[in-house]
Amino acid sequence: MIEIKKLTRYYGQLAALLDLDLMIEQGEIFGYIGPNGAGKTTTMRILATLLEPTSGLAFIDGLDVTKKGKQVRKTVGYMPDFMGVYDDLKVFEYLEFFAAAFGIPSRKRKGIVEGVLELTDLDAKKQFAVDSLSRGMQQRLGLARVLIHDPKVLILDEPASGLDPRARIEIRELLRELKHMGKTIMISSHILSELEEICDNVGIIEHGQLVFSGSMEQIKQRLGLHAKVVVRVAGTPDTALELLSTLPEIADVTCKGQDLSITFADGHENDGFLARTLVKAGVDVVAIEPQKLKLDDAFLQLTKGLVN
Ligand SMILES: Nc1ncnc2c1ncn2[C@@H]1O[C@H](COP(=O)(O)OP(=O)(O)O)[C@@H](O)[C@H]1O
Ligand SMILES: [Mg+2]
Fold first, then answer.
1. What SS3 state is found at 279?
2. Domain-wise residue ranges, the chain
3. Whose CA is nearest to atom 3 of ligand 1?
4. Model confidence over 143-202: pLDDT tens digits?
5. Pairing relation of β-strands 63-64 and 55-60?
6. Ligand 1 atom 2: the closest Cα is on which residue?
7. Which of 113, 182, 233, 285 has its CA 20 to 30 A from that of 25?
8. How far apart are CA 282 and CA 37, in angstroms?
């Protein structure tokens, strides 16, 4: 649905993008991750036809963004990192304004605006002034706005940044719903863990170049992140320790008192076999607790060029 080939964009001497290649399949949520200044906004503005590339090609649904601007703009809903200021407008006025700007006939506008208000769970706020909304609601309003012309592709520039955890969860739910409606979604962030749960694939960009692209699973492998659990046993851990050290699913076991810290091997996680195996061997398991992956630490290493 989105194809980028050798895309390059200079600002003066600075190469904000350099020979960038990227593919995003139809119906996926693609996380575009990179530190500030990496070139995410530049890429997205080119895709949204708001910026000309210096060289290279970009296609959306087969349309060349530099040649078929009008059709591309119909296909894409672009949400910029900072929304324009229309503070004195009410929520429904704001959306009706954009419906008019998209050329939607006036008799259809009301229905469409009500539809997107319902989808983004803002119906109760439609009479409120835009500037009276919380940041989370304003971000949902931004999404409502890009949905007005029912685009196939959504390009969302850091929609979750600056949101509290609850608002972030609401945005995540909304994105899942949009994916179910068949939309292709490209979403950027400078924090990998922010998008971890919703992305089918991610691309990591640094200094205008893609340093990694693949599934969340692949990225965890690349970063050397493996699932970990701590198992607490009753009595001495010796039997358990011995047994676990022989299993091919387990890369490493260390023991501290009655706690066994277990690292799974590549491609394995705790899908129930661990408890089953231990109980079968007569080990009394008191607790099994999954450990959180240190995704952001590993990501920082990757973007510092410390991991190859
Ligand atoms: N209009 C501009 N003029 C000059 N330099 C710019 C301009 N816009 C962005 N840049 C530079 O291009 C690089 C990429 O910026 P940007 O695409 O905004 O990155 P990101 O969105 O990943 O933070 C940065 O070094 C930034 O300072
Ligand atoms: Mg940006």
1. helix
2. 2-222, 228-292
3. 11
4. 999 999 999 999 999 998 888 888 888 889 999 999 999 999 999 998 887 888 899 999
5. antiparallel
6. 11
7. 113
8. 56
Sign of CA dihedral 45, 77, 194, 308: negative
Separation CA 84–CA 17 (nearest Å)? 25
Answer yes or no: is the C-beta of 203 below 6 A from any ligand 1 atom.
no
Contacts of 15 (CB under 8 A, 6+ apart): 8, 9, 208
Residue whose CB lies within 8 A of the most ligand 1 atoms, among 42, 43, 157, for a mutation test: 42
The domain defined by 2-222 carries CATH number 3.60.150.10: no
Q: How far is the CA of 16 from the centre of ligand 1 (A)?
A: 6
pLDDT per residue as tens digits for the range 12-70: 999 999 999 999 999 999 999 998 999 999 999 999 999 999 999 999 999 999 999 99
Q: Is the CB of 120 under 6 A from ligand 1?
A: no
Unique residue bearing structure tokens 């693949």: 214
* Structure token digits, residue 74: 């119909």
**Contact 40 CB / ligand 1 (< 6 Å):** yes
Domain 228-292 -> CATH class: alpha beta
**From its phi and psi, is residue 62 left (phi > 0), alpha (psi between -120 and 50) or beta?**
left
Q: Residue 68: which residues within 8 A CB-CB, separation 6 or more?
A: none
Does ligand 1 come within 6 angstroms of the Cβ of 36? yes
pTM above 0.90, yes or no: no
3-state secondary structure (DSSP) of residue 291: strand
CB 127 within 8 A of CB 49: no
What stretches of 73-219 adopt beta strand conformation (E)?
76-79, 153-156, 184-189, 201-206, 209-215
